[in-house]
Amino acid sequence: MVEAFAVASGKGGTGKTTSTLALGMALAEQYDVTVIDADTGMANLLFHAGLGDVDTTLHDVLADAAPVEAARYERFGLDVIPCGTSLDGFRDADPGRLREVVATVARDTDVILLDSPAALSSRSAVLPVVLADRVVVVLQPTIPSLSDGLKVQEYADSYDTGVAGLLFNKVRDEEDIESVATKTERYFDGPTLATVPASEAAREARRAGRPLLAHAPDSSAARAFAEAASRIDVRDRGADRVADRFRSAVIPDPP
Amino acid sequence: MNLPDGELLKSRVVEDPRDLLAAALDRALTGYAILEPQESLLLDAGGQGILTLQDGVPRLAYYTGTDRGGPAALADLATPGPYRVELYQLEAAVSTDLDATGGLQVTPGAPAERLAGDPALAASTRRSAPAAWCESGPGGAAADDESTGSESRRSAVEAFLDDAEKIEAIREQAREEAQARAEEWDFATPEEQAVEEC
User: Fold this and answer.
1) Residues contacting A215, CB < 8 A, separation 6+
2) What are the Cα distances from residue B47, in Å, to B14, B35, B41, B58?
3) A245 CB contacts (<8 Å, ≥6 apart)?
4) Which helix (H) or strand (E) holds A213?
5) What phi and psi, each to the nearest 5 degrees, are found at residue B39?
6) What is the 3-state secondary structure (H, E, C) of A3-39?
7) What is the ipTM of this complex?
8) Nearby residues of A194 by Cβ (< 8 Å), 6 or more positions away
9) S-S: A123 plus which of B15, B59, B185, B197, CB 3.0-4.6 Å?
10) Whether B157 contacts chain A with CB within 8 A
11) Inter-chain touch B78–A145, beta carbons under 8 Å
12) How far is residue A45's CA from residue B71's CA, in Å, rounded to a whole number?
């Protein structure tokens, strides 16, 4: 079985990478999970997963200089495929090959999580939403974030990509999140998976180069992410379906 | 709000007002910004938002499209962008007169939070503001205690979510944009795939 999820928000700073790894670790209790850094221009995942010193990354795979397996690292019970940080690597990478990477990984994993770029302003930025079966929309209870989340949903809908649910992240105590979440759900096709409190533990985890669920598994934020993962009903879309999605999409231009 | 003439420092179209707010704060600018959402679809009549600044810190907000001020004006102005923005500098003495305008106050971090979605910028703006502005202000801004998150922010977000027409307009705009870009980027949409498979 396999289902691919894009973790997306339409804007930066919502905690997508923290969310991707946290959902990945929680889902890995039950499934075989692979997390891919699909934000090829702003590599982030490697620092969160303690992979800052690896030699081979997704950039090498997208430049046709290495097989997928060479950039796939087992960490924290997950398979992690990070992007590199060098400008040369970014320049040589062909984001269009991401489709092949996803199709290859889909053959031997249950859940693929694509950590998506912050914007929807280019082909390569939208590609994870195109390739995924469903999106997890990461939101903050602010008007700009909600607007951008709505935009992500409309893009997803245009490509027949569903909405697995909403994740309210970095929520502060004083925010009346229940009311905001209830009102937000009216406009989205998926439920609120969890509301994750703003947490110093998440910042500490990032600094330590470890996923939140490994660094502070008992923190309130980690528990909320685990709750979110438990509400995602992973569906078997079939590896062929992932491979076939948008086969008519031409290879995007290099960055 | 009658605005005195000021010295125009910047005029451009931006995705969101974050950089404008950050630049004003960095320069401790006293003056005002005019923000005009470029998506007239979202705002029935169209209009301009005015945000006054004192030593870089936002003080008053007003939106001509709805004739509302304070946090309500920020809610009206919060669109996905882009905006045409103009930044004007004023003599401090003139701006003090403006400050007497009642009912238009916003708390210092509110524009950064609501228009730019940048809590870090909001926090640094609050740190630069006189303490009294964060706690209470003339015109009944006492409820906008941003140091603990805020009544006004909650109500602005909820007011936004209660405006089904505005949200539908945002969705419609995004749908059209997504479809247009799918063609531009050669991503087939499901309808096109179905045709190909026939």
Assistant:
1) A201, A204, A205, A208
2) 17, 9, 11, 19
3) A99, A130, A131
4) helix A212-215
5) -95, 90
6) EEEEEECCCCCCCHHHHHHHHHHHHCCCCCEEEEECC
7) 0.86
8) A167, A168, A224, A225, A227, A228, A231
9) B185
10) yes
11) no
12) 37
Can you state the percent helix, strand and coil of chain A, rounding each to 5? 40, 20, 40
Rounded CA-CA distance A162/A164 in Å is 6
Closest Cβ opposite residue A249 in set B149, B161, B186: B186
Q: Which residues in chain A are closer than 8 Å to B164, comparing Cβ atoms?
A: 186
First to last CA, chain B: 61
Q: Nearest residue of B to residue A156 by CA position?
A: B178
A192, containing H or E segment: strand A192-197
Euclidean distance between CA atoms B178 and B182, whole angstroms: 6
What are the pLDDT digits (tens) for A199-252?
999 989 998 999 999 999 999 999 999 999 999 999 887 666 665 664 544 444
Residue A161 at interface with chain B, using a CB cutoff of 8 Å: no
| CB-based contact A147:B177 (threshold 8 Å) | no
The CATH number of domain A3-243, selected from 3.40.309.10, 3.20.20.450, 3.40.50.300, 1.20.1260.10? 3.40.50.300
Backbone phi and psi for residue A27, each to the nearest 5 degrees, phi listed first: -70, -25
- Tokens 């228009």 label which residue? B115
User: If you ran DSSP here, which 8-state letter would residue A253 be given?
Assistant: P
Element containing residue B69 per DSSP (H, E): strand B68-69
pTM of structure: 0.74
CA-CA-CA-CA torsion sign (B176, B180, B186, B189)? positive
Which among B149, B103, B152, B146 has a CA at the least distance from the CA of B127? B146
Q: Give residue-wise pLDDT tens across range B14-60.
A: 888 899 999 999 999 999 999 988 765 455 557 889 999 999 999 99
**What is the per-residue DSSP string for B78-143?**
--S--EEEEEEE--HHHHHHHHT-TT-B--TTHHHHHHS--HHHHHHHHHHS-HHHHH--TTTGGG
> What are the φ and ψ backbone dihedral angles of A112, each rounded to 5 degrees?
-110, 130
- Kindly compute the dihedral angle of the four CA atoms of residues B93, B96, B101, B107, in this order, to the nearest 10 degrees: 150
Nearest CA in chain A to B153: A142
